[in-house]
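Hi support team,

I've been running sequence recovery on a batch of backbones for a student project. Most finish fine, but this one hangs at about 90% for roughly twenty minutes before it completes. I'm not sure whether the input is malformed or the queue is just slow. I've pasted the structure tokens below so you can try to reproduce it. Let me know if you need the job ID as well.

Thanks,
M.K.
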């Protein structure tokens, strides 16, 4: 079973701390598979293979523009997260699927979720050999990346995940070379459809396809309290209070 939790808008540092805590709980078998769905405040993240040359503005200039910078342990290069982008963090134990999933199979399934979700909104997308993510099919314009994927796997448990551009301000991507790929543009559902897309509807569609692609039942949790109960040694608060909660280490009960 996949427990789905919608967090709203959460800053990157707070979401990262929550992921880390859930990963430890998942390794211990104290929670089932979890899918976090959220939006981030503007942030540029650098994966394990990131090249600083793909960051096109100085750090102080980015900070002055309200854009944070984080190095993280996911795969991939440089990417942007921000409002209007649906970010999904699956905390899955790949060893419990039948058959067991490896890293490549897991990424292919994430791509399939995104491809099917975009297709339901009338946006044909596909894989690109040698690359990850979901890409629009070449038509009158050039092929463009609509969703990025970067994951980390530790002892079979996944973290990080995908970012689907829904109503994202694409100007932010001018601050970087997205995923280190200079010759392919970035797009959004908004741009492809010529209209604003309902984020909650996209989240619901993505959740449904997660269940279908991974062959698991999905259940939406009302809050972190409902998800974690007494699994951690601190009371869980709603998203606006998460940063204050995680200023200190979470101690597992």
């Amino acid at each position: 079973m996949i427990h789905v939790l919608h967090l709203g808008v959460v800053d990157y540092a707070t979401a990262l701390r929550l992921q880390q805590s859930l990963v430890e709980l998942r390794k211990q078998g104290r929670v089932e598979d979890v899918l976090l769905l959220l939006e981030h405040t503007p942030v540029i993240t650098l994966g394990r293979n990131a090249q600083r040359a793909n960051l096109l503005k100085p750090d102080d200039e980015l900070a002055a523009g309200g854009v944070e910078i984080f190095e993280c342990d996911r795969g991939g290069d440089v990417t942007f997260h921000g409002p209007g982008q649906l970010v999904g963090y699956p905390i899955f134990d790949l060893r419990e699927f039948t058959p067991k999933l490896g890293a490549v199979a897991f990424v292919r399934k994430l791509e399939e979720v995104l491809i099917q979700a975009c297709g339901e909104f009338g946006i044909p997308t596909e894989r690109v050999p040698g690359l990850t993510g979901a890409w629009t099919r070449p038509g009158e314009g050039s092929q463009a990346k609509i969703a990025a994927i970067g994951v980390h796997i530790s002892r079979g448990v996944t973290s990080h995940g995908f970012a689907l551009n829904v109503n994202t301000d694409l100007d932010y991507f001018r601050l970087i070379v997205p995923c280190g790929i200079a010759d392919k543009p970035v797009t959004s559902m908004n741009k492809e459809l010529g209209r604003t897309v309902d984020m909650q509807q996209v989240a619901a569609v993505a959740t449904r396809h997660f269940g279908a692609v991974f062959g698991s039942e999905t259940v939406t949790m009302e809050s972190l309290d409902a998800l974690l109960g007494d699994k951690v040694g601190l009371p869980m608060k709603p998203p606006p209070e998460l940063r204050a909660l995680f200023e200190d280490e979470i101690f597992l009960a």
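--
Follow-up from support: It reproduced on our side and the slowdown came from queue contention, not your input. The mean pLDDT is 87. No action needed from you.
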